[in-house]
Structures are given as structure tokens and as C-alpha cells.
Specification:
Shape: globular
CATH architecture of the largest domain: Up-down Bundle
Radius of gyration: 17 Å
Number of helices: 9
Number of strands: 4
Order of helices and strands: EHEHEEHHHHHHH
Bound molecules: glutathione
């Protein structure tokens, strides 16, 4: 059964990157449908695929799943032989908590530093107190997961997991805007950036013809 993933512009769509990167890392073949966002016909195209009218969305046979976290859980359930979550229960509880925290939070960081894979790295305005608190919390969360569960590899829980997929767009924000993070967080970010799949996403985003001014401030 074919997996078909609906995604937005690779240059800007942080939510789309998450399931895309996870599918690649799990070595699950899939077809991608790229729909450029915020154009006059975008909504109609998104709604033709998913009733939520947003990316990402995944079609798999009769199943349609939307929202990056739901897609992650669907993949974990449908492909139990693939390591979507850490095998250890304590690590898995932390991984799920971090994913939920990322999914529903860090709004100050997100709005001050939009994901933009095309933008040449350069510092812009320094973070205000709320964005600085978001950055500090993410840095601490990464160090905590790596310190407790990361001994077997370079990722948050050693081997690549859903938690890394969820935080991958933050790696882009930290690098693009040259935000100050700890050496441990920098090393983790370098491990994500070294992934061939992550590189593939970045290159594809840079090659896209669409420019969205609201993400280019
Ligand atoms: N929480 C959702 C967020 C989905 C979302 O807001 N996607 C944005 C782009 S990254 C979108 O589809 N925007 C297009 C629109 O609203 O028309 C998820 O994780 O999938």
C-alpha cells in the first residue's frame, strides 16, 4: 500500500519536514505531493487531500491522517518493526513528552524566527525574554535527553526517533539566525544537519521557485 504525504513548501513548512524526515529515516518509501502554500488556489488543493486543509497529511490505503504528531503515532502503530519511539519505556515517555511540548509550545521562538531553509545564515534581532526562555528550555531538554539516553548515538535518544523529527525545524531556526546555544546543543544540531535526508530537504527547499514574503522579514 502506497504512503502518500502531502507537504507544503520545503523552504518554509516546518510541520511538513517532521513526518517527511521520519519517513526517510525509517526507510519507508512514500510519494510526496508538494502544494505551495498561501497562494490563491492553495486552500482548495489542500482541502482536496485533507478536510483539515493543512499540511502535513498522510494517505495510506483507506486511512487519512493529518497533523504531524498524529502521523508520527500512525507510523509507530502501523510499522511496529520500525523504531519510531525509543524502545525503553522511560525514554519513550520522555520522547513523547518532548514531542508534545514542541508541538504545542515555543510560540515566541517560532514567531520571532520563522523556519526558512533558503535564508543565508545571519543573526537578526537578539531574542526577547520569551524567545530566550524558549531557546533555553529547548537547549536544556536536548542536553537532558542526550545526557540520560543518548549514549548509543548522536541523536536525542541515541538512535534517530520521532523526537528528532519533531525538533529538526528548530535546528534550522537556530542555525539560520545564529542563535546562541550550548556546545552540546550545537553538536546535536550538527548531527541533524549531517543527515542526508535533512540535506536533501534543504537543497529541495532552496531550489523551489516560490517566495513567501511573510517568512522573509
Ligand atoms: N499542528 C499542525 C500544524 C499544521 C499547519 O499549521 N500547517 C500549515 C503550514 S506549516 C498549513 O498547512 N498552512 C496552510 C493553511 O493554513 O492554509 C501539524 O503539526 O500538522
Amino acid at each position: 500500500m502506497t504512503l502518500t504525504l502531502l507537504i507544503g513548501n520545503k523552504a518554509y513548512s516546518s510541520w511538513s519536514l517532521r513526518p517527511w524526515l521520519l519517513l526517510k529515516q525509517l526507510d519507508l518509501p512514500f510519494e510526496e505531493v508538494v502544494t505551495p502554500l498561501y497562494r490563491p488556489d492553495s486552500k482548495e488543493k489542500l482541502l482536496a487531500f485533507s478536510p483539515a486543509g493543512k499540511v502535513p497529511a498522510l494517505r495510506h490505503g483507506d486511512s487519512l491522517v493529518w497533523d504531524s504528531l498524529s502521523i508520527i503515532e500512525y507510523l509507530a502503530e502501523t510499522f511496529p518493526d520500525r523504531a519510531v519511539w525509543p524502545r525503553d519505556a522511560v525514554a519513550r515517555a520522555l520522547a513523547r513528552s518532548l514531542c508534545a511540548e514542541m508541538h504545542s509550545g515555543f510560540t515566541a521562538l517560532r514567531s520571532a524566527y520563522p523556519t526558512n531553509f533558503r535564508r543565508p545564515p545571519a543573526a537578526i534581532a537578539p531574542p526577547g525574554p520569551e524567545a530566550a526562555a524558549d531557546i533555553a528550555r529547548i537547549d536544556a531538554a536536548w542536553r537532558d535527553a542526550r545526557g540520560r539516553f543518548g549514549a548509543e548515538g548522536p541523536f536525542l535518544f541515541g538512535a534517530f526517533s520521532a523526537a528528532d523529527a519533531m525538533f529538526a525545524p528548530v535546528v534550522c531556526r537556530f542555525s539560520t539566525y545564529r542563535l546562541v546555544i550550548s556546545i552540546e546543543a550545537q553538536n546535536y544540531a550538527r548531527a541533524i544537519e549531517a543527515l542526508p535526508a535533512y540535506r536533501e530537504w534543504v537543497e529541495s527547499g532552496r531550489a523551489e521557485p516560490w517566495v513567501l514574503e511573510k517568512f522573509e522579514k
